[in-house]
Amino acid sequence: MIQEAFMQRSLTHENVVALSQRLDRYIAFYQKRKKKNAKFAAAN
């Protein structure tokens, strides 16, 4: 994302914002998955 912002010379360029949103979704997915795995491991 930083590289894209540098290339576009803007943090608010539509490509940078779209990439940031994709990363946000990935991070949220990963955190939910990690939480579920922790609960599963604690149950066993």
Automatic annotation (TrEMBL):
GO biological process: regulation of sporulation
Organism (species): Paenibacillus sedimenti
Signal peptide: none
Gene3D superfamilies to which the protein is assigned, alphabetical: Helix-loop-helix DNA-binding domain
Stored InterPro entries: HLH_DNA-bd_sf (IPR036638), Spo0E-like (IPR018540), Spo0E-like_sf (IPR037208)
Name the UniProt record assigns to this protein: Aspartyl-phosphate phosphatase Spo0E family protein
An example Gene Ontology molecular-function term: protein dimerization activity
